[in-house]
Structures are given as C-alpha cells and as structure tokens.
C-alpha cells in the first residue's frame, strides 16, 4: 500500500526512523518497476542544522523542495555529478536523506542503469546486489533518480516514484549513529546522532561498530 500524506506528517527524526523498512518504488518509462527496501536514513534539521542546505532558514532555487509540504522529494547534485534523494518532513527546511536501499525487485534494470553511468560503456562489470544501492548516489543511479525527473514531486501523488508499506512487516533493530560527510559543519553538528540504519543489514553504506555496541535489543 502506497504511503499517504498523513504518513509523512512527522518530525524529521521520526520520519527517518519511520521510513526504515519501507519500500521505495520507481516505475520507469519502459513500464518496468524497481523496488528497494530503505535500510539507512539521515536527518537534516533545517534552520538550526549547520550541515543542512537550509541552515539559517535560507531558501534558494536549489533547496526550495525542503520548504514544500511533507512528503515532497528533494533531489540535489553533489560533487557536480551525483544525485541524492531526500524527503521533506513537517518542519520547514527539514528533510530526510535516503542513504541506502536493499534491492528487492527489478535488479536487472538497476544494474543496467549503473552500467550506463559508467565512463567505459563497454565494461563487462557485473554488480553484486549489495553494490547496487549501498549509498545515496548509487541508489539514485540505480533508480534513475535525477533532478530533472524526480525533484519537487509529491511522493503520494504520482505514478513513477513513491514509497509503500512492505508486504510483510519485519522486526529489526535500529542503530543510531553520526552522519557521514558533514565534518565541515563543525564538531557539534558532525557528531549529532542523526543517522539511522538497520542493524546487520549488509546493504548499509557504512557501519558504525562503536554505535552498534550501544544497540538495545528487545527482551
């Protein structure tokens, strides 16, 4: 079942945890569908967050989606060549970065998309399943998520990119860790526990073994 607008009416931190285990679905122009289970997320808290594109409450052409209604996609380019997918939460300027997926359907299409992106078009490389979406830019390539085709869209009101409940709910343990690649925001914000991932899932982009020692297991 596709998530509705009310499902996204959450704070950034709550949404980051809520999205774990949910299914990101991409329908391509050739009508094939790829799906991936969300296994890692990261929070950007808006105006107060020195690592956020919307720090200080600034609105720019680039980050407008962060101020749009909850459940809006925010796709931006990093390093001048890779895209990242975020979803706006209910706080203005706050969004959740989707960091990693566990591919579950349409893996051939994902691999084809990854191969197309490679500089050597004649490469015979074969991607392992765990290599397809174990990072924010990798999943965008695999799902063909770009600023031109997937930015500023309502994830509840379109037929080519959405999030849905898994067929069977699975119990899992969540690891709370620090974000990746935000050292320039300063020590305080670089060390905020704003990254969340499913414990022992091999598709996570980067494990934090120190944080994993503090995981609380259900009794």
From TrEMBL:
Stated name of the protein: DNA-3-methyladenine glycosylase
Subunit structure as annotated in this protein's UniProt entry: Binds MBD1. Binds SSBP1.
Membrane-spanning parts: none
Biological process terms in GO annotation: DNA repair
Pfam families: Pur_DNA_glyco (PF02245)
Family designation: Belongs to the DNA glycosylase MPG family.
Known catalytic reactions: Hydrolysis of alkylated DNA, releasing 3-methyladenine, 3-methylguanine, 7-methylguanine and 7-methyladenine
EC number annotated for this UniProt entry: 3.2.2.21
Biological role stated in the UniProt entry: Hydrolysis of the deoxyribose N-glycosidic bond to excise 3-methyladenine, and 7-methylguanine from the damaged DNA polymer formed by alkylation lesions.
Keywords: DNA damage, DNA repair, Hydrolase
GO molecular function: alkylbase DNA N-glycosylase activity
Superkingdom of this protein's organism: Eukaryota
Cross-referenced HAMAP family: 3MGH
């Amino acid at each position: 079942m596709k998530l509705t607008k009310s499902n996204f009416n959450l704070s950034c931190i709550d949404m980051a945890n809520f999205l774990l285990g949910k299914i990101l679905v991409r329908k391509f122009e050739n009508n094939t569908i790829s799906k991936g289970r969300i296994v890692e997320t990261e929070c950007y808290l808006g105006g107060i967050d020195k690592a956020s594109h919307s720090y200080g409450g600034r609105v720019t052409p680039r980050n407008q989606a962060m101020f749009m209604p909850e459940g809006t996609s925010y796709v931006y380019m990093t390093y001048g060549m890779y895209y990242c997918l975020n979803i706006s939460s209910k706080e203005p300027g706050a969004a959740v970065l989707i960091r990693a997926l566990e591919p579950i359907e349409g893996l051939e299409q994902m691999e084809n998309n990854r191969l197309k992106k490679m500089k050597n078009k004649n490469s015979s490389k074969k991607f392992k399943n765990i290599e397809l979406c174990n990072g924010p830019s990798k999943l965008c390539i695999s799902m063909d998520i770009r600023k031109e085709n997937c930015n500023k869209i309502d994830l509840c009101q379109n037929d080519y990119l959405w999030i849905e409940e898994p067929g069977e709910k699975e119990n899992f343990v969540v690891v709370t860790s620090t974000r990746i690649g935000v050292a320039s925001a300063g020590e305080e914000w670089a060390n905020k526990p704003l990254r969340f991932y499913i414990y022992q899932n091999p598709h996570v982009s980067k494990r934090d073994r120190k944080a994993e020692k503090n995981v609380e297991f259900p009794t």
